[in-house]
Write a structure and sequence with these properties.
The chain is of the alpha/beta class. It is built from eight helices and seven strands; from the N terminus they run H-E-H-H-E-E-E-H-E-H-H-E-E-H-H. The relative contact order is 0.16. The mean pLDDT is 94.
Length: 213
């Protein structure tokens, strides 16, 4: 295990072989301590030629168990919102800024409770996201929530200020267009779920217009 200051997935990232090679290599990543408690690496999923890449925070409990991103309740809500906004979920590449589930337990054998990744953990996992972007070369990145935004756009990112607008930034050496919105899990936690859901759909419609332009 590397020292804390040297956490990085970089030594594990293959230089060729496309998404299949990246997925195989990510399964063996030991670039930070999160792999120690997670069931498995949860790599991105979707077509290598997808026009849009959706980037969330990290896998949740169901994703950790099944090995695929966005298969839990938040993922189902996201698929519904994408379809309502005019984006085919099957045409998107979905991934997370961090590839292992970070969690805590109040007691042994109790439910695993999501815990937000640190900036150091996001930075350590950054080479995987950079490699995915280099292979997929999406026309647009949809940023799902504050953690993904900070991983891609820096620690000053605030989803409440940036959501629903088209951003242009250089990320990992590529000029990218991005639209930020809330993470679908925040919609599930909202006191006014319907209003939160409609806000998510509204932001995704901005993304759909970019793809149609």
């Amino acid at each position: 295990m590397p020292s804390e200051s040297a956490y990085s997935a970089e030594p594990f990232v293959p230089r060729r072989g496309g998404l299949p090679a990246l997925r195989r290599a990510a399964a063996e990543c030991r670039g930070c301590p999160l792999h120690l408690d997670a069931t498995q690496t949860v790599f991105g999923d979707g077509k290598a030629d997808a026009r849009v890449m959706l980037v969330g925070e990290q896998p949740g409990d169901q994703e950790d168990r099944q090995g695929k991103p966005f298969v839990g309740p938040a993922g189902k809500l996201l698929d519904r919102a994408l379809a309502e906004a005019g984006i085919d979920p099957g045409d998107a590449y979905v991934t997370n800024a961090v590839k292992h589930f970070k969690f805590t337990r109040a007691e042994p054998r109790k439910r695993r409770i999501h815990k937000a990744p640190t900036l150091r953990e996001m930075t350590a996992c950054g080479p995987w996201l950079a490699a995915e972007l280099a292979v997929v070369e999406p026309e647009l990145i949809v940023v799902l929530g504050a953690t993904a935004g900070k991983a891609l756009l820096g620690s000053a990112f605030r989803v409440t200020q940036e959501r629903g607008t088209v951003l242009e930034r250089e990320i990992h050496g590529r000029k990218e267009r991005l639209v930020a919105t809330v993470h679908p899990s925040s919609v599930l936690r909202s006191d006014d779920r319907e209003a939160a859901y409609q806000g998510l759909v509204s932001d995704l419609r901005v993304a759909a217009r970019v793809l149609d332009s």
